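Hi R.,

As promised, here are both runs. First protein below:
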Amino acid sequence: MRLVLIAASLALITGLLGTPMLIRFLRRHNYAQAIRVSTEGEHYPEHQGKRGTPSMGGLAILGGLLIGYFGAHLFPLRAPTVSGLLALYLTVGLGCVGIADDYLKIFKQRSTGVRARTKLLGQAAVALSFAWMAAHFPDSDGLTPASHAISFLRNTGIVLPTSLLMLWIWFLVTATTNAVNLTDGLDGLAAGAATMTLGAFTLLSLWQYRQNCSFGDVARCYDVRDPLDLAMFAAAAAGATFGFLWWNTAPASIFMGDTGSLSLGGAIAALAILSRVELLLPLLAGLFLIVTLSVIGQVGSYKLTGRRMFRMAPLHHHFEMIGWPEIQIVVRFWIIHGLFVALGLGLFYAEWIRRPG
């Protein structure tokens, strides 16, 4: 528990103190993201007040995560585990895809950034390489970081061959990263929701560590590799994001950009896969799922009927278009997300209580 607190504290301090330093640097060089402007045929919410706000704030989140995670390993001179390093690989790798996207938005003033196909190829390369490595590197007990079984609260009886496992992980990573990316449309919305999800994974991984099968004959134990290190990773990610949120909340002094949203999506996906609670992700990432479904519904409705379900998708922009203040949307969406996260943690704990010894 002490190491988890150290990881969270170091990351939080880095996020709080490092973000304003990044803001000053970005402002000094006029590194601001292009803002979409309404045209005669396509209307967007009025965000001209955000013009000039620096982007690429995800660099502060990544910096806090790395300092928190590795800093917590320095105190006891404890080596990072394969699971922790793989989670970092997926997070930083997807962050690099986001950096390329933010580069075009900032330096080329192209509000759409990297083409969708190019971005998906970059995500696929990182996700598939992560999947292959996660299926290898067994420990002394033969446990690999990722299980071949599809998991819910634990591993289920559905076991996949390596090729299908890699496709399954690719789908989870792509879906999660793009869901966080779609949610990052209002000041603080994605950062606040991600902090809740990462905090939930911290508690979940700590519980798996306390009840781990590696300790011997433990009733209702969890057969998860490196749960303590995953808790440290989750705590560092949560602390860094929470520190960044201080500067990202409305009115935002900085945007996280795709650097941040893709990194956070990767961190959340990695934790779900390595903690073996993959099918619990729709609850622990409930808001991200709702926002994604609103986009799917909007596109599907327009193609099938020629009519739109919402005034604008993603969903938070629909409420902007009907006149809700931005801060009201953000806080209410945080509340909804918090209820989903609480339900997910409740199901996880209830299964442990009810499971026969």
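And here is the second one, sequence first, then its structure tokens:
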Amino acid sequence: MAKQQPAGSDGAQTVSSALSAPSVAQSQARILAEALPYMQRYSRQTVVVKFGGHAMGDPGLAAAFAQDIVLLKQSGVNPIVVHGGGPQIAGMLQRLQLKSQFVHGLRVTDKPTVEVVEMVLAGLINKDIVTAINRQGGKAVGISGKDANLMIARKITEMPDPESNLMQAVDIGYVGDPAEVNPHIVEVISGSDLIPVVAPLGISRAGETLNINADTFASALAARMKAKRLLLLTDVAGVLDKSKTLIEELSIEEARKLIRDGVITDGMIPKVEGCIEVVEAGVEAVVILDGRVPHCVLLELFTEHGVGTLLGRKMKRAA
């Protein structure tokens, strides 16, 4: 006959075991509790997120991004998603046998090309992102910069020469820069339980559709709305120093010095310069972060150290 355990001993062992070895549920509860101060910091604040790069073509990363955006909305944050689509546009142009060329990093966009750009950005990609967010329990609404004159743009007719940095005339077709931002439609959407997903197209004062760089579009929108944060998802870890180590935080002055000293080079220069302009326009901070990291948006906003490089006015993440 088996020896009986003393009454209540099983319960005591269970309690002791639970105290000595935290369960998965307890770990999850601790993580949520640690995130509480950051959730409170961003409650009812606007966060503009530029979604692009490798993450857009990876189903797992795209699903994780959609979960992040839905959780932000559920936590009281007002996320606004602006997306790119360069690789998808290039693929469609190739399928249609339309040749494409670039001038100083911008796609030359003639009339047939801009029609493809609008079809891919405002149609296929925009609705794919909307669907991904809705599948995670969100309520996303897809629009473009043309809706309600959100983004009035002007054609780009001159650009700085990469070697001399002097302005020179260019003819790159239907490519534009923001001239006027009218955020009413985005404010109405994000002020409800809906999440705006915006394709980076603009409309000229003459009624022409203009293709706008997604970083530039997101920056102009964030600046006009005085967003708490602008997050730029990229295919790099962030800004790196000379030893290729991630620089976690930069002030405007520090960023300008790194450009002068040749630490920030090539394509990162215009990205950082754009970040500086956004901060000077009133956005509290801009973060360049690696979109290849699952849940990078939540890691940046709801943890102590975040991910990527934060650029702001001498501020720290924990401030």
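A quick note on the second one: The mean pLDDT is 89. Let me know what you think.

Best,
J.
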